[in-house]
Design brief:
heterodimer; A: 413 residues; alpha+beta; 15 helices; B: alpha/beta; 10 strands
Chain lengths: 413, 230
């Protein structure tokens, strides 16, 4: 066999030993890579955790991952554009393991009046069990109770709305809307609970009532405005969307949350891009150290490189050798960086208390506790970026080394 | 039989405004199994001639033929292949790869050639024993004396049975006793392994070993004589 190239194991051994010729320099570079990788992964986990929570908060409470409604409902959210409650086919699809929870609700524009003030609201007629299955968090109830069943005659309002109406728990309010014949439909309700939300606008906008009660108020019969379905991974809704679409009535429209909540969807996409930019920026800072280390290693060994060429090693093999040294350095640095990042994220699983800046976090739609989210995808991105860009960066010193004239290299002092 | 033929070799270097003629129309035939010394003062062109023959440096003009095949126009890769299989080198210093043991240094060329572990291990141990370094296979260059390091370099140069060994001042950093031992060894290997040696030196003691002594000055061959060797 005539390969004229140093076999990979021999090249690895040589590269490994070369790496440790200057322990201090290698250790400093390893430390730099490890800290860089740690910063990439740790900060990404924090940012990802914050955005994750904002998105979950935004879609778990109302929209769900996939929503069914009348094809014209988004343009005209009136009672006219209602749909039938789930039939047998849809009910069967909603039993699919891909479905984590679902609910059907009435959603109508309405006016709520206390003895002091009136506000425009979106009145939701809900089945409380379905809402809880979908993602409504009972811990968000700050006063009173949540609805008990679809026939519940009480109302649950947001904390901010309560403040605006200058009313309180147990007080009566009047809700006014329109029936399908455009007649005014109004009824008195007692406030039985107050909820909080990440966004004040949500607290001010949405009022929950028992579904049957609201259906009877606006004379909808058993029709509903929308059916919201939750899955298990908000990023991967394609399968869920297909299952629900195939079982939904023809006149209905089935949309994923990304289309319903375009702001949150944009935020998620922006976050994905930002993570990549963040990783590349840190890598760029690292790359200068990497190039410097390899350049130094090459300059120190010019004679040796000349000797190897004189002995019959092809320039391409010299290039591979330097790249192999870089690869070993990167892999070691990545290993240390990954361990460091995982070791620092794991103890924070229970969340980081940010109550000192809770107001700011709330304005961004996030809670006062930040849960770092370590995603395999982010871990893989950081590792792949460092390896790929690291090798690309190392091409310069490696190419430099392979271009030496052996005669000149051997006589270099 | 002529192994290497050099025709009208020219290599010039520019130093400021001055053109230095490192090789000035040099012509040379090297017979197989020769033991030749190139002598001359520093700057006479000895190393440049070795580098030109070994393809370590490009010529400005002229031709180098190896076994009848013109090799001076080969690209870097094919030239590296020629060196790998047919030419061994021994340099004045920095001859060994410091992170490899004596045994690994000897095996290096065979490794690049793709020879199996077993075969190269056997060959490297045998050749190290032949150059008097038995038991030192696992020592790193820093753990060897200058003379021992040169022996390892010689062992590496001849272990894969090249046609030609080019040695550039191989005794320059050695004391006289070690230098004598090394030259005895080279002569012995030349006779036993039928390898052609072309040695550049300005050491009179080394020249005495040459069967053929070529004297250079200012990039030209000024004398080419056959010697009686004692």
């Amino acid at each position: 066999m005539n390969t004229n190239t140093l076999p990979v194991p021999a090249m690895m051994r040589l590269a490994w030993r070369n790496l440790w010729r200057n322990h201090r320099r290698t250790l400093i570079m390893l430390l730099a890579i490890a800290i860089g990788v740690w910063a990439m992964i740790f900060m990404t986990a924090l940012m990802r955790g914050m955005v994750d929570e904002m998105i979950r908060d935004g879609i778990d409470s109302l929209p769900g991952y996939v929503q069914i409604h009348h094809a014209d409902f988004r343009d005209d959210p009136s009672i006219d554009n209602s749909i039938q409650a789930p039939g047998p086919e849809l009910l069967s699809a909603l039993e699919n393991p891909a479905v984590a929870g679902w609910t059907s609700r009435v959603r109508v524009p309405a006016m709520i009046s206390s003895e002091r003030d009136s506000r425009g609201i979106t009145l939701l007629g809900v089945d409380p069990a379905g809402e809880i299955a979908l993602g409504f968090d009972l811990d968000n109830m700050v006063e009173g109770r949540f609805l008990e069943n679809p026939e519940d005659k009480g109302l649950v309002v947001g904390r901010k709305l309560l403040e605006r109406l200058e009313t309180g728990l147990g007080k009566r309010v009047v809700v006014m809307s329109q029936d399908p014949e455009n007649n005014v439909a109004d009824r008195g309700f007692r406030i039985v609970g107050v909820y909080k939300a990440s966004l004040e606008s949500q607290e001010e906008m949405f009022v929950y009532g028992g579904r049957s009660n609201i259906q009877s108020l606006v004379k909808m019969g058993t029709m509903v405005s929308e059916i919201a379905v939750a899955g298990h991974d908000y990023r991967a809704v394609d399968d869920l969307l297909t299952i629900i679409t195939e079982a939904s009535p023809l006149e209905s429209e089935v949309l994923p949350w990304m289309e319903l909540e375009s702001y949150l969807s944009s935020m998620m996409n922006m976050m994905d891009g930002f993570v990549l930019v963040w990783i590349i920026v840190i890598f760029l800072a690292l790359s200068f150290g990497l190039i410097n280390t390899l350049m130094m290693a090459v300059f120190e060994r010019i004679r040796e490189i000349g000797l190897m060429q004189a002995l019959g090693m092809r320039p391409s093999s010299i290039l591979y050798l330097i790249l192999m040294e870089s690869l070993l350095l990167l892999v070691l640095g990545l290993l240390a960086g990954n361990i460091l990042a995982i070791a620092s994220i794991l103890p924070l699983r229970e969340g980081i208390d940010l109550s000192a800046v809770a107001r700011g976090m709330e304005m961004m739609g996030a809670g006062s506790t930040l849960y770092p989210a370590l995603k395999l995808r982010d871990l893989a991105t950081a590792n792949v970026v460092v390896i790929v860009l690291g090798l690309v960066t190392s091409l310069l010193p490696a190419w430099h080394a392979s271009r030496y004239s052996p005669a000149e290299a051997i006589t270099k002092i | 039989m002529t192994a290497i033929k050099c025709i009208d070799l020219c290599k010039f270097f520019q130093q400021g405004d001055v053109v230095i003629k490192a090789l000035d129309h040099v012509a040379l035939d090297i017979e197989e199994v020769s033991f030749i010394c190139l002598s001359g003062p520093s700057g006479s062109g000895k190393t440049t001639l070795l580098n030109a023959i070994g393809g370590l440096d490009k010529l400005d003009s002229g031709e180098v033929h190896f076994d009848g095949q013109r090799v001076d126009q080969l690209g870097k890769g094919p030239m590296a292949d020629l060196r790998l299989h047919h030419i061994g080198f021994v340099f004045q210093a920095y001859n060994l790869i410091p992170v490899l043991t004596a045994g690994e240094n000897v095996e290096f060329v065979m490794q690049v050639q793709g020879i199996s572990v077993k075969e190269r291990r056997e060959k490297s141990y045998a050749i190290l024993s032949e150059v008097g370094l038995e038991g030192m296979e696992n020592r790193y260059p820093a753990q060897l004396s200058g003379g021992q390091q040169q022996r390892v370099a010689v062992a590496r140069a001849i272990v894969s049975q090249p046609r030609l060994v080019l040695a550039d001042e191989p005794t320059a950093n050695l004391d006289s006793e070690t230098a004598t031992q090394l030259m005895d060894l080279l002569r012995e290997l030349n006779e036993r392994h039928k390898v052609t040696f072309l040695i550049a030196t300005h050491d009179e003691r080394v020249m005495r070993y040459a069967k053929r002594l070529i004297r250079m000055q200012d990039g030209k061959i000024i004398a080419d004589e056959i010697q009686e060797v004692g």
